[in-house]
Amino acid sequence: MNRKKSRRVAMELCYSMEISKDEPSLVLENFLDNYEEDKTILDKEYIIKILNAVNENKTSIDSKIEELLKGWKLSRISKVNLSILRLAISEMLYIDDVPKKVAINEALDVAKEYSDEKSVAFINGILDNIYKEEN
């Protein structure tokens, strides 16, 4: 199974949960019903673990992000960037089998694909500060 691809799907589903306000299992079910590519490469167990971690810890994750924003409010962060941050922070703090540095590097790769250069630097700054706090 491809964790890199699963992580991208998880980010898209985090975004979908933010927009729809649906529960993780429903978002994943709807996604899989419409997923045209090879589903066997996805690590569904990992995806649901991430979605649940984001969903269950959203308040805590958002307050960590907000603490690090200088002159910004959480509402000013694009939903895509917020989804990337929530996913990476969930991996760093709540998923034991993902090294923190891997979570950061993967988040930056996803940000390069879905956002612009300024967003990548912004995401890196937030995640780096959380990494330093946790170590």
TrEMBL record:
Gene3D superfamilies: NusB-like (1.10.940.10). GO terms for biological process: DNA-templated transcription termination; transcription antitermination. It comes from the Bacteria. Keywords: RNA-binding, Transcription, Transcription antitermination, Transcription regulation. GO terms for molecular function: RNA binding. SUPFAM superfamilies: NusB-like. Pfam families: NusB. Signal peptide: none annotated. The keyword RNA-binding applies. Residues 5-132 form the NusB/RsmB/TIM44 domain. Belongs to the NusB family. NCBIfam families: nusB (TIGR01951). Involved in transcription antitermination. Required for transcription of ribosomal RNA (rRNA) genes. Binds specifically to the boxA antiterminator sequence of the ribosomal RNA (rrn) operons. This is Transcription antitermination protein NusB. It comes from Clostridium intestinale URNW. The gene is nusB.
